[in-house]
Design brief:
The protein is mainly β. It has strands at about 5, 10-15, 20-25, 35-40, 45-50, 60, 70-75, 80-85, 90-100, 110-115, 115-120. Strands 2, 4, 5, 6, 9, 10 and 11 form a seven-stranded mixed beta sheet that branches. It has a four-stranded antiparallel beta sheet with strand order 1-3-8-7, with no helix packed on it. Strand 7 and strand 8 (about 80-85) form a beta hairpin.
Length: about 120
């Protein structure tokens, strides 16, 4: 059974840093795109960051460029999201997604999803 499990989310203050992890099991995702999305209360799910199968190309939403970094460790079948200089508007449930054809920025193109981890940034 394929499973993605996010971890690392917690309450932090503005300006703090967090590192989220997404551990995959059931299959390897070394040949698949991996992405992070987030959803704030009352808002639609939005793209945050993604990385291609090789780990050589990454993609970011304009709102997080320069602050967030996505990476992957294929040996561990894990993808990470390093979040620096966090802002209150970064608050939300962060979801890990994997695999699928299509644009990395569109959540509907991903085949597998984790249950999410809550990130709360206080001002």
């Amino acid at each position: 059974q394929v499973q993605l499990v996010e971890s690392g989310g917690r309450l932090v203050q503005a300006g703090d840093s967090l590192r989220l992890s997404c551990a995959a099991s059931g299959r390897t995702f070394s040949n698949a795109k991996m992405g992070w999305f987030r959803q704030a209360p009352g808002k639609e799910r939005e793209f945050v960051a993604a990385i291609n199968w090789s780990g050589l190309n990454d993609y970011y939403a304009d709102s997080v460029k320069g602050r967030f970094t996505i990476s992957r460790d294929n040996a561990k079948n894990t993808v990470y999201l390093q979040m620096n200089s966090l802002k209150p508007e970064d608050t939300g449930v962060y979801y890990c997604a994997a695999d699928g054809a299509g644009l990395v920025t569109e959540w509907k193109t991903y085949h597998y999803w984790g249950q999410g981890t809550q990130v709360t940034v206080s001002s």
